[in-house]
Amino acid sequence: MSIVLENVSYTYMPGTPYCREALRDINLIIEPGEFIGIIGHTGSGKSTLVQHLNGLLRPTTGVVKVDGNDLQAKASEKKRVRQRVGMVFQYPEHQLFEETIFDDVAFGPRNLGLEADEVAQRVESALERVGLPVSEYGSRSPFRLSGGQMRRVAIAGVIALQPEYLVLDEPSAGLDPRGRDEIFEQIMQLYHGTGMAVVLVTHNMEDVARMAKRLLVMNRGQIEFDGRPTDLFHDTKIQLHEFGLSLPYMTSLLRTLRSRGLDVDDALLEASDVAASIQSALQKKRIPQC
Amino acid sequence: MLTDIMLGQYFPGNSFVHKLDPRSKILFTLIFISSIFMATNYTGYMVLGAFLCLLILNAGIPVLIVLRSIKPLWIILVLTAGIHMFMTPGIPLVSAGPLSITEEGLRQGIQMAARLVFLILMSSLLTFTTSPIALTDAIERLLSPLKRVKVPVHELAMMMTIALRFVPTLLEETDRIMKAQMARGADFSSGNLLKRGKNMVPLLVPLFISAFRRADDLATAMEARCYRGGEHRTRMKELKWSYRDVGAGVCIGLLVTILGWLRWG
Lengths: 290, 265
Description:
The complex is a heterodimer of chains A (290) and B (265). With 290 residues, chain A is α/β, with parallel strands linked by helices. Helix content of chain A is 39%, strand content 21%. In chain A, the strands form 2 sheets. Chain A has a 6-stranded mixed β-sheet with strand order 6-7-8-3-9-10, sandwiched between helices. In chain A, strands 2-1-4-5 form a 4-stranded antiparallel β-sheet, covered by helices on one side. Chain A is globular, with a radius of gyration of 21 Å. The model of chain A has no long low-confidence stretch (mean pLDDT 86). Chain B folds into 2 domains: 2-130 and 242-264, no CATH class; 144-224, no CATH class. Chain B is built from 11 helices and 2 strands, in the order H-H-H-H-H-E-E-H-H-H-H-H-H. Chain B has helices at residues 16-19, 22-36, 42-59, 63-68, 74-87, 103-129, 132-143, 153-183, 193-199, 201-224, 243-264; strands at 92-96, 99-102. A two-stranded antiparallel ribbon of chain B has the order 1-2. In chain B, helix 2 runs antiparallel to helix 6 (103-129), helix 7 (132-143) packs antiparallel against helix 8 and helix 8 packs across helix 10. The termini of chain B are far apart. Classes of the chains: A alpha/beta (290), B mainly alpha (265). The interface between A and B is medium-sized, with 29 and 24 residues.
């Protein structure tokens, strides 16, 4: 089953002088097991869009269906849907509140009304997945961890719901490069290990370029591109800078080299592949080494 | 959700009323409110009402929104009018058992209700047309003579400004934490009072933590910019009296004169 958005529009504070249209006529289908990157400039509507996926916001017009159920029609569906679509907000560490890490991660499963041993088992596996084993961290206070660890605890709190779709809104915001790499590596492991669909919201092209199989580019409340990342980077008609975005560093490097007459493959994204491609192109040209 | 709440109720605009100096707006509002009590007959109320209508029209605020500001106080309005109608002695118009509405009572009731309505409308017009920050600024200036008797006027105004500044931020924060906990299956809207109170813990703990963190950050930021209270501080936006304020002063003076003449002339 899938998440379907039909002609969804959303307006903040309609009928006041502060009214602002955040989404305009969005049509989107998210299939299970997909890895989608949503990218857009600040204020392009990406956060508003993902809050529709589990019914936290109701569309002003249009329909959101999760597994064929209209979210608007059935209020009783909401809780079930929120379990199926896990949502990690920006700076999720700000939602921590319990005395121990175990209790904080257990908050979601307990709200689902699960048995104590099922809860314990879920907490254990969720903490394991984010690299904070329960035996070592379970009884510690979440407020004594580092920023990156707090964030991982918060993510574990959502994973413990065992959702089918995991939505992450700017999971790397405010982390140092190492913390960022760790978070993304764990997201990749999660994706491959559990088979849940991942929707990753970011404004940093580097983050999604390598990971996402499908990329949505948002601008002014509309989806401007929906397809594979490499197609986006090769489509010279799409002017990313008009949407306030830039190409991944490697792509723009390769493009520049290409335009200067070096025969490189500009579809590469990994630094090591790029280096190899440049090397072989240079050898082909037989530039005299000095 | 929460962020949909209108803050204060400032309604941005570009009208004559909007552009008045906030100090004069506060002063003139006070004068208008006291002049309401000068009116004793229907003509006086008509004059006041007409003046208010002109102001509202000039400010360009939708009439419905202006009238909405009366809504929270309608019980008091009905009570006031009712008590006056039934309790004033005089020639009875309608009577049922021990209760009777007198002619004097009816007049008194209508006038009292009108007074209250004018009072509410005028003060909400002030907050409709003046941003909260401009208001605190003006209050600081108007109260500055109290500095002589060691009232920390600047500090009070700064506290008010900071509090107002953080209302939207905290609302947004509340909204976000609420959504984050709802995404984890939290329920804020059902159960009995005790259960609901308990359900608020996942919202309140993070909210307090973030409020303290913000307060700390702000204090550091102010310290780093060498903030040290009101002494020798200048402002980026100096409040200035202009011809508009003089004009508004003349208008309000005229209103008071007419009302005085209607009463004693």
